[in-house]
Design goal:
About 55% of the residues lie in helices and about 10% in strands. It is α/β, with parallel strands linked by helices. It has three domains: about 10-60, Single alpha-helices involved in coiled-coils or other helix-helix interfaces; about 60-270, Rossmann fold; about 285-335, no CATH class. The chain binds guanosine-5'-diphosphate (GDP).
């Protein structure tokens, strides 16, 4: 088979969905919101339509810069994103803000989702803000955010910000879907050590210390600590040493410096080909994640697996069968 002959499912859009695609591509916010609702739906017929819509918009994706911003509740994420957003709009850019909120996937309640956040920005035509889908596993929520990101890109947004709360797995998940991953920190001594323990320093492309206005001296000390922490580690990219910047989101100080670093980062990675390579790697790893979860689901729904799983489970629990023997025997059912 030649390259380019990949047997993709026929992409037949209904007239309604074609209108939706046209609306997204024309930058209509209502169409974009509707398309995101479609991809967030768990109904199988909606999911199928959503994939067709995504296939149709795919050639128009890829032009935005995708930035991840993570921080604990109260670090100032929404204050920062609002200040950044208003500044970017002044520079003639359009931005979309999406959330990956692990709390919403667990409890249905959300840390990031309430509508009163980013009040100024949400009134601007040039900004599109979408809270996290409130159901599904973190993996499921993240998958929807990846797809929403593609829709926003196709709709002409120049900057896509993916916001997440700094708990659990969500940082790694978000780092895996953005070009640049930023940690928003408070000027607290010792937070660098926490981040090292959690393994998130390695995935940071920039560390931002917010609320510098509260205590400038303490902020300078914490900045030095972060610089040391980053020096101790091998940088994720050979072409980029993650900077540590300080800012005050509340007083809108340091926003231009932040953006300067984003542009430097983009230039450094683009000139070496690393930018595109990273996106290719992310797309493939997304494909494999979907294959893995699809296989798992297929396995669990297989009639013979369903029939025999309880007996194998008991047998492993009681020590009569080894986990490996049980796993191989169960996997064997898939062959028949
Ligand atoms: P989030 O939970 O990370 O989104 O944090 P918020 O943006 O809601 O901010 C939490 C609180 O910190 C709010 O009361 C903000 O006004 C305040 N805050 C945010 N940025 C700054 C800052 O740069 N300086 C000061 N002094 N307060 C800030």
């Amino acid at each position: 088979m030649n390259l380019g002959e990949v047997p993709v499912r026929a992409n037949i859009l209904s007239a309604g969905d074609q209108l939706l695609v046209d609306g997204v591509l024309a930058g209509q916010r209502r169409a974009l919101a509707k398309a995101i609702t479609l991809i967030e739906s768990t109904r199988p017929d909606h999911q199928q339509r959503a994939q067709q819509v995504l296939n149709a918009i795919l050639p128009s994706t890829g032009k935005a810069i995708r930035i991840g911003i993570s921080g604990v509740p109260g670090a100032g994420k929404s204050t920062f994103i609002e200040a950044l957003g208003v500044w970017l709009i002044e520079q003639g850019k359009k931005l979309a803000v999406l959330a990956v909120d692990p709390s919403s996937s667990v409890s249905g309640g959300s840390i990031l989702g309430d509508k009163t956040r980013m009040e100024l920005l949400s009134q601007r035509e040039e900004a599109f803000i979408r809270p996290s889908p409130s159901s599904g596993s973190l993996g499921g929520v993240a998958e929807k955010s990846r797809e929403a990101l593609l829709l926003c890109e196709a709709s002409g947004y120049d900057v896509i910000i993916i916001e997440t709360v700094g708990v659990g797995q969500s940082e790694t998940t978000v780092a895996g879907m953005v070009d640049m991953f930023c940690l928003l920190q408070l000027p607290n001594a010792g937070d660098d050590l926490q981040a090292i323990k959690k393994g998130i320093v390695e995935i940071a492309d920039m560390v931002i210390i917010n609320k510098a206005d509260i205590d400038r001296q303490a902020t300078a000390v914490v900045r030095a600590q972060w610089r040391n922490a980053l020096h101790m580690l091998r940088p994720a990219s050979p072409n980029w040493a993650p900077p540590v910047i300080t800012l005050s989101a509340l007083h809108k100080e340091g926003i231009a410096e932040f953006w300067e670093q984003v542009e430097k980062y983009q230039a450094a990675l683009k000139s070496t080909g690393e930018f595109d390579a990273k996106r290719q790697h992310q797309a493939l790893s997304w494909m494999w994640q979907l294959i893995d979860s699809g296989l798992r689901q297929y396995f669990r729904h297989h009639p013979r697996v369903q029939e025999n799983l309880p007996a194998f489970t008991r047998s492993v629990e009681e020590g009569h069968t080894t986990p490996a023997a049980a796993a191989y025997a169960l996997l064997d059912y898939l062959k028949h």
